[in-house]
Write a structure and sequence with these properties.
With 141 residues, the protein is of the alpha/beta class. The chain has 2 domains: 2-35; 40-134, Rhodanese-like domain (Oxidized Rhodanese, domain 1), CATH 3.40.250. The protein contains 7 helices and 5 strands, in the order ααβαβαβαβαβα. Strands 1-5-4-2-3 form a 5-stranded parallel sheet.
Length: 141
Amino acid sequence: MFADTLAKFLEFITVHYVLSGTFILLLVLLIIQQSRNAGRNISTRELTAMVNRDEAFILDIRPKKEFSTGHIAGSVNISNDQLKDKMVELDKHKDKTIIVVCASGLNAGAACAELKKAGFTAARLSGGITGWRSENLPVVK
């Protein structure tokens, strides 16, 4: 069954090569555009250095229940679903880069895009809090 489906898929691609190529090109352009809008990834080392130089503000967008199980010291929790409503609370940090932290680093991109639209400088922590913990870096409860 899988071989039959694969054969039909390959036949479709070869018959409709212009359509297939256009789809792939648009998909690549979409991925590039989304990664540009989402802000850059920073490592745990970069985050630590920026915080030590007082250049960063850490925003944890995980739900409050997850945040309470452990978070980066000094981070502030505004869950992803409340970010638009509470963005005004971040105005006092416009002079710093807002580092967005989520569970794995995958959800932070959309929050970074929202922050950028509102005039903030934003980046996301690569790997999120999971990456932070995997490097045995401290969390507070």
